[in-house]
Amino acid sequence: MITYFHLEEDKLDIFHHAFLEAVQSLYTAPVYFRHRSQPNNQDEGQNPPRRAGKQILDLGTGTGLWAMSMAEEYPDITAFGVDFYDFLQPREILRSTFFCGHINIEKDWDPIHQFVDWAAGLRRADSHTDPGFDSHNWDLIYARMLNGAIHHWPNLFQNIYNHLTPGFGCVEIVDLDWTPRCDDGTFPQDSHFEKWFGLLNQAMETIGRPLKINPNTKNLLIEAGFVDVEEKVYKIYHNPWKRGGHEEQTGRWFNLGLTYGLQGMSLAPLTRIIGMGEDEVNELVEKVRHEVCLLKHHGYCNL
Questions:
Q1: What is the pLDDT of residues 212-244, one digit of tens each?
Q2: How far is 220 from 150, CA to CA, in rounded Å?
Q3: I need a labelling partner for 246 at 20 to 30 A (CA). Which of 48, 155, 167, 196 fits?
Q4: Structural domain span for residue 16
Q5: Where are the alpha helices (DSSP H) in the chain?
Q6: What is the pLDDT of residues 144-189, one digit of tens each?
Q7: How far is Cα 155 from Cα 107, in angstroms, rounded to an integer?
Q8: Residue 82 forms beta bridges with which residues?
Q9: What is the number of domains present in the chain?
Q10: Are residues 129 and 56 located together in one domain of the fold?
Q11: Would 29 be classed as within a structural domain?
Q12: What is this structure's pTM?
């Protein structure tokens, strides 16, 4: 139901920068990849040598910016990105990055296996060596901003668990809790943001794809077989009211993403499911935009 226009693609990339500012890292999972600033022989002399990951899978890759950023920062890895849509990813990409659309990650992952086999064939034809790709053993599986796109999370968690490198692979799931929060009472009680999110989540719940964070997510992961499940929470400020450092930059990026992306997120669900008129939706969106741009409102969402 999320409408994909050029503004929506821009929003995905803008949110990537907002999340990067908030977390200060492309990933936080406890899996090691050699950074481009480290020499190839940096682990020589260790007994045993430190194991480094080689393959990552980005679920719901969108424009592919996270996967490409990982491939640039960690030159030893090959990054694969899959998405239901096939027109968001760039056509000119890094040699160590592969993208594929029309993939339903909640169902059987045979299409992903076929995609990786195809990529291996390209690499063999290019280098005349076997790249050693293994679509059954991923060192890191990354899933970001999938709330609103998934019907049955337990199926997805089981698919992920079954495709991680045993004893080494990790999954990192990143999503935004759109519930507006404020610690100092400056956010309005009759918030347009809160009204907007309530209506949008109502629409998405109607089609079985709620936007709200499931408080039972940790238990669902454990039921799928995961161990050492850890939750980290970061504040994503609505605007740059908090001056100084990466928190101010987080607010700048997130505010830009909101002003770009609110209409694309809202129009189809609120008109087709809730039954609002297009003018009514646009009016609400403009009120939310105005509200989140006021620096006197110290609002934020949790990541």
A1: 999 999 999 999 999 999 999 999 999 999 988
A2: 14
A3: 196
A4: 1-24+52-175
A5: 6-23, 65-73, 110-127, 153-162, 192-206, 217-224, 245-272, 278-293
A6: 999 999 999 999 999 999 999 999 999 999 999 999 999 999 999 8
A7: 8
A8: 59, 100
A9: 2
A10: yes
A11: no
A12: 0.93
